[in-house]
Design goal:
The N and C termini lie far apart (70 Å). This protein has helices at residues 9-74, 83-100, and strands at 103-106, 111-115. It is mainly alpha-helical. It has a domain at 82-117. 72% of the residues lie in helices and 8% in strands. It has a two-stranded antiparallel ribbon with strand order 1-2. Keywords: Coiled coil. Residues 22-49 form a coiled coil.
Length: 117
Amino acid sequence: MSANNFSDPNFAYAMGVQRGRIERAESNAASWRSHAKNLEEKLKIAEEAQMFREVAREATVVVLEAALAALSAKDPSSPLLDGNLREQMRRRHIADTLAAKGYQFDISKGELIGKTR
């Protein structure tokens, strides 16, 4: 009997099994390609959102600096001109906001500790 005898039932069975394996592998590969494409799209959206947040933060800094300059001209003794006080206020706000979302924030270090619930 020849090694490639297509009339041999064992050979035909083995070829059918192999075809099934190939089809499953191709289907799995297509599924993973689709999943990878979806993740790439989500990453692009997240990167764009991060870029927007960074630009918005930079704009906020520009406005803050202008407001501090105006405040300094009108009320040079204002406690809001103290950078340490502003940093304490900022950290307190971060801590309170994160606490409401289930996170703990170390105000003294300015670091996220982790999720509390």
